[in-house]
Amino acid sequence: MKFDRKASGEGIEAVCRLENGKAVIEWHFAFLREEQEKAHQVISFTVRNREGQTILLCMQETEEEELLVSVVLHPHLWSCQDPYLYDMDAVIQDPEGKETDRLKKQLPLRELSFHPRRGWLLNGAEFVLKAVEYTIPQHTSQSEKQQLVLRDFRLLKDMGANCIHTEPTLWKLCERLGFLTWQKEMAAVGDELPCLTGDG
User: Fold this and answer.
1) What element of type H or E holds 157?
2) pTM for this prediction
3) Are 138 and 199 in contact (CB under 8 A)?
């Protein structure tokens, strides 16, 4: 059994909500299974802060239907000004304890919601969504493309943008640099977004 890396979150998605200063995380998993594969495999994962300290250690059978929920006390929340990311290491093991897959990723803890009267809220505070659409530059080498994207993202940051609609290949970079990624269910922004094309 392996993580379905084409699914949301590459196979692991963490939905965070804030309650009384704590981060309550609901975990959603997506797996790829072989026809003859044995059931009752186990997924275990560790979440560490930037100092390498373990803040979460969880384990669940892959066949478990009940939602896995964990709590982080005094979380360091992600924001556009402070894009803090935790490190997560997840492992799937078969009944004999053999590792069948491993996934490493960075995890933001944040809650984004929409209130009918107050509008968008990020971590409970009112948040003015300034979204743009970004098109990856074409007709350049990979190294040039990386430099252009970084330059353009810094420009967008200087212009006050805090949310980008772009290709999934850039979503991780968006999180590291302090941008939310704009999705179609965020239609309250409007259908038309200002567009920056990396070609200039």
Assistant:
1) helix 142-158
2) 0.87
3) yes
